[in-house]
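[step 3/7] fold_predict: job queued, chain A
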Amino acid sequence: MSTENKILDSIASSKNNKPHCGTCSLSSLCLPIALQANDLDALDQVIKRGRPIQKGEMLFKQGDDFNAVFAIRTGAVKSFTVARSGEEQITGFHLASELVGLSGYAEDVYPLSAKALETTTVCELPLDKLEVLCDEIPGLRKQIMRNMSGEIRQDQQMMLQLSKKSADERLAYFLLELSGRFERRGFSAKAFRLAMSRVDISNYLGLAVETVSRIFTRFQKNGLIATEGKEITLLNLDELNNLTGNPSLNAQCDSQ
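[step 4/7] structure written:
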């Protein structure tokens, strides 16, 4: 069963099939664990859960007024900037339980655009109501700050990869970083679905799409990975880790 289907099944089993923060299988990742039941109820009352966002649909656009933060329930989203020339630069890929839109706090507008990579469901937290809740629930504010800190750290790590690593090292790092994120959600660190296209991956890693395709092929021939459509299996975590030379990634994957 795919990652998305597992999450959907968990959500569907909640009371009356209606999503609720207290029954969501991802709540421990996007919410403070110590929240009391009444705090969860208060948060649940302000969250907006609309129709699923279809692949290619925008969540928000660069320059839009910053009026909400979004928690991804299922699916995946890419964030990107658009230069005056119209060229797109992908800045990140966001998975279930992760927050999107926090960067809007700086200028009161979204500095990035966000687009669904596949059918995606989100919990929308309106900014005005979220700020009131943060005053009433200190743990919620701390969790949002923790999410911001995680985004900054992830961006810093990726900048290091792009500035000093070879093409093979970049792709190995990318796959292992995704592996760790799936593992933290309780899913396999070795087998998962790549929601993003190879064109998107190449854009994100600063490589030509032909280069990314060649590396995928070489990794398969060398027994490092196996692919079937968008499904990928990491067959040799040790060698992928050796390629990155990153101890923190080694530690994340050794437990599998």
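[step 5/7] annotate
The first strand starts at residue 58 and ends at 60.
Residues 81 and 89 are 5 Å apart (CA to CA).
exit 0
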